Amino acid sequence: MSVPFGSVGMVTARWWPSVGGIETHARQWARWLRARGVRVEVLCLDDDPLQSPFDVRVVDDDDVRVTRVAYRYHDHETFADLARNEHLEELGQAWARESQLDLIHIHHLTGWGHGLVKALAGHAPVVLTLHDYWTVCARGQLWNASNECCPGPSLERCTPCLSLTWPHLRVKGRDELGFADDTESVRSLLAASPASFDCAAALLAPSEPARRVLVEAGVPEERLSVFSLGVECESLALEVGRLRADQPPRHERRLGVLGAVQPTKGVLELAQAVLECAVDGLVLMVHGPLGSFHGDTSYTDQLRALAKSHDSIRLCGPYDPAELPEVLASLDAVAAPAQWEEGFGLSVREAAAVGLPVLVSDAGGLPELVETDGAVGVIARRADPHSLQEALRWMDSTGSFGVVPPKERPRLTSVDEMAEELIDVYLGVLEAQSSQASSSADAEAPQE
Questions:
Q1: Residues 115-140: what's their mean pLDDT?
Q2: Domain spans in the chain, listed from the N-terminal domain onward
Q3: CATH classification of 234-408 is 3.40.50.2000, yes or no?
Q4: What is the CATH class of 7-230+415-433?
Q5: DSSP class of 384
Q6: Percentage, residues of the chain above pLDDT 70
Q7: Which of 140, 168, 230, 311 has the most CB atoms in a 10 Å sphere around its CB?
Q8: What angle do CA 254, 360, 344 make, to 5 degrees?
Q9: What is the DSSP string of 26-80?
Q10: Residues 58 and 67: beta-carbon distance below 8 Å
Q11: Interatomic CA distance for residues 49 and 40, integer angstroms
Q12: How confident is residue 443, by pLDDT bands cut at 50, 70 and 90?
């Protein structure tokens, strides 16, 4: 497939070797474009503690130039600072000026703030993908400080929630910050979302369920489109198959979860269900980092305690992206028992693509994998311990732990198919820009 433009910029909060669905998707897309002659420039944040704040370093990632800006939220003083960071915006503009890009695709604004959209839009048209809910929820997942799903932003909901999440950003007693109270600071934060949407030439969501949640939370419905997020299937399946062929038989059944452990992901609840479901030989393998969730470690502390007491709960730690085939080859099924409105669920789609059955919750875009795409697996009700146990017993009774034959695997969107959709989006944006420029030139031309 030929690509009718020469350069694309990509902006993310993190980049490889950081592991996550957004990072994996953005890197796959960058490499696909680069392989077809498109110059790709990446701008991301860097949380390396050895780097001084705002230090800029440029590295090469498989012929993709990556500009990394050191930043660890050191200068946040109020909730409004979550939306605007003038220093980062200036660095973003310098990157855009130097890169001279045809188009900029922002994949995540965490850390950068909403103001980066306007800052970059002055240099090239911006496509903004809303992979999660950060643009409408400072916590990122429409999941409040009381560990409950939130219907959307409002002063009444956001002010107490953010005050509990980041008490050091409260205004009270600090008159020099320029806000009368926390409500005024939060109002400034909330006003940044629609402003950023107005500056983007196109808004994208990774699934129809995610689009519905975003619209309900205030994203303009008429401007938000769904694209098919592609999964790299063929080469991943071949490598996993090769690794499986070299493995000795095992007697335990390994259920895996992949990604960072957070209350929104439901991993602790799944671990408890594994212990209570009475399925012989069932082991839960947790592949991902166990950090804090907005500074709170109580959730992962409980999971560590379970693992310490029960050999059937195994904490494997984070993995390098290059190790994904090895991780998948070691499992008999993969679970994503999310409690938040998961926008897509890349890990379970990659698992299904290589022939692993899946257990997913009925949250966000996850059930589509079983109901629409046809993956072998089961859907459990979110936040329902009994439903999780029943799902595990169903997988046991139906022999659903193990490798699914190729002909029974789901038909997932490939990266090539995703590329067709994204290129159409890009071309639409570039054509609209060209048309607008022509109209402006005609209007400014002297009249005879």
A1: 96
A2: 7-230+415-433, 234-408
A3: yes
A4: alpha beta
A5: -
A6: 97
A7: 230
A8: 120
A9: HHHHHHHHHHTT-EEEEEEEE--TTSPTT-EEEEEETTEEEEEEE--STT--SGG
A10: yes
A11: 27
A12: low
